[in-house]
């Protein structure tokens, strides 16, 4: 039986904008209020998806969320027609209004944590949407994320869907951005690594002082329990609080793993030596390639600015690995020099492919943020909703859909335009038909 790791990339929504909402995310804050291009953003993301498909990867599409979130504004007491709700919220509570317009659902690494059937007690692929409690604008996502995932993976024989964790920061969960899986083969039992920023119930333990730690130890443990993982295939490791305070808001900004490779910065973790020994012990006889990037080679500042580690690490058709990096890495002389030298070493990483995803990068997310990884065997893959899997026809159709519905430019002031809401809902309603998702958005229910 064949096993593959499928990347499901977030399709950028028609109201993609730069609101600078994410405290602790340097890129997001530095580009606040800039004019965005929803059309360019969506097409950049689609181009990356199609390129990976053409490289032989199995590639999927994950639909965006409805924004502005009118249902949440009504929950918060704004009334009248949809246009009146928009106008009143924008004038009376502009910060809340910008939050319910957030484009953040494009980063589907935060959509959920996924454990493949090879790791779970019941042999099913398990999905738990992230509650994203640390940021109000992201805490609006879990219910719709759950509906979209259930529409994509809608066969109960192979897929198990859980409700997101309790909406409380004690169980703050940011999904796959703080989770990676190492394995000798995608179909074999692997080691699931949960990286957390703080202990919610023990204030005596190390924690960042400047920026929030969004993932808790207790949340990571709860996900492992829900997914039926054993102690033999889980490792919990704390992210270095000092690196969080340098703008590393998720672990995937400072480390990335795939199969037998963990590519990470020297300052990424606490208790690195002890925890890596545990990873190797649980991984088995085959050696894990722990590829450390020292501060002398690449500073944390350069890593954050270029998203060197917020890259995709993929196993190609020839068995070697390739890094899918943003062009920002290519444009930084130190990072570009490091990557050029890395592919000459005796490691599985042999290639670097650069992609322009600047619209996402300016909002605080690189290639790794844009995708959710799901390891599947042939039978499970056949049970996935086929309409969400990338091919030439879907690529052409989604580009036509973007051309039809998306604006070339969007400013923060445009978000209160009732016409934009109508345009967005029309686009999303058509998208659910293209991807055969059924009714997943609040305006459709």
Automatic annotation (TrEMBL):
UniProt GO molecular function: N-succinylarginine dihydrolase activity
Keyword terms, alphabetized: Arginine metabolism, Hydrolase
Pfam family, one: AstB
Active-site residue list: 174, 250, 369
Keyword Hydrolase: yes
InterPro entries on file: AstB_sf, SuccinylArg_d-Hdrlase_AstB
Pathway as given in its UniProt record: Amino-acid degradation; L-arginine degradation via AST pathway; L-glutamate and succinate from L-arginine: step 2/5
Keyword hit for Hydrolase: yes
Transmembrane segment boundaries: none
EC number(s) from the headed UniProt entry: 3.5.3.23
Reactions catalysed, as given in the entry: N(2)-succinyl-L-arginine + 2 H2O + 2 H(+) = N(2)-succinyl-L-ornithine + 2 NH4(+) + CO2
Record-level GO BP terms: L-arginine catabolic process to L-glutamate; L-arginine catabolic process to succinate
Amino acids binding substrate: 19-28, 110, 137-138, 214, 252, 363
Role played: Catalyzes the hydrolysis of N(2)-succinylarginine into N(2)-succinylornithine, ammonia and CO(2).
UniProt record similarity statement: Belongs to the succinylarginine dihydrolase family.
Subunit record text: Homodimer.
Protein name: N-succinylarginine dihydrolase
């Amino acid at each position: 039986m064949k096993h593959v790791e499928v990347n499901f990339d977030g399709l950028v929504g028609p109201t993609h904008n730069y609101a600078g909402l994410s405290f602790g995310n340097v890129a997001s804050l530095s580009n606040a209020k800039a004019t965005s291009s929803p059309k360019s953003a969506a097409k950049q993301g689609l181009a990356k998806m199609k390129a990976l498909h053409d490289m032989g990867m199995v590639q999927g599409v994950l639909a965006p969320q409805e924004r502005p979130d009118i249902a949440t504004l009504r929950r918060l007491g704004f009334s009248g027609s949809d246009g009146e709700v928009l106008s009143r919220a924008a004038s009376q509570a502009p910060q809340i209004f910008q939050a319910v317009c957030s484009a953040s659902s494009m980063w589907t690494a935060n959509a959920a944590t996924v454990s493949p059937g090879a790791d779970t007690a019941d042999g099913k692929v398990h999905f738990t949407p992230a509650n994203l409690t640390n940021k109000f604008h992201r805490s609006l996502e879990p219910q719709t994320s759950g509906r979209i995932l259930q529409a994509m993976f809608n066969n109960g024989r192979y897929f198990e869907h859980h409700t997101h964790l309790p909406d409380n920061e004690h169980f703050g969960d940011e999904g796959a951005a703080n989770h990676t899986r190492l394995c000798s083969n995608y179909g074999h039992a692997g080691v699931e690594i949960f990286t957390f920023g703080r202990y919610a119930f023990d204030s005596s333990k190390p924690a960042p002082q400047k920026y929030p730690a969004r993932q808790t130890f207790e949340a990571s443990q709860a996900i492992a329990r829900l997914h039926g993982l054993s102690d033999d295939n889980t490792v919990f490791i704390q992210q270095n609080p000092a690196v969080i305070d340098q703008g590393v808001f998720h672990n995937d900004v400072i480390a990335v793993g795939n199969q037998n490779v963990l590519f990470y910065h020297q300052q990424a973790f606490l208790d690195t030596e002890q925890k890596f020994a545990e990873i190797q012990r649980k991984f088995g006889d085959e050696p894990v390639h722990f590829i450390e990037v020292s501060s002398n080679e690449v500073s944390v500042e350069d890593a954050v600015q270029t998203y060197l580690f917020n890259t995709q690490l993929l196993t190609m058709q020839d068995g070697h690995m390739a890094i899918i990096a943003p062009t920002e890495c290519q444009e930084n002389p130190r990072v570009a020099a490091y990557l050029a030298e890395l592919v000459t070493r005796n490691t599985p990483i042999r290639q670097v492919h650069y992609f322009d995803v600047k619209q996402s990068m300016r909002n605080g997310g690189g290639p790794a943020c844009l995708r959710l990884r799901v390891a599947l065997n042939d039978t499970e893959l056949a049970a996935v909703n086929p309409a969400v899997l990338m091919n030439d026809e879907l690529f052409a159709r989604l580009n036509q859909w973007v051309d039809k519905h998306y604006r070339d430019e969007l400013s923060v002031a445009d978000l209160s335009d009732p016409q934009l809401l109508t345009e967005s809902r029309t686009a999303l309603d058509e998208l659910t038909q293209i991807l055969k998702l059924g009714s997943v958005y609040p305006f459709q229910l």
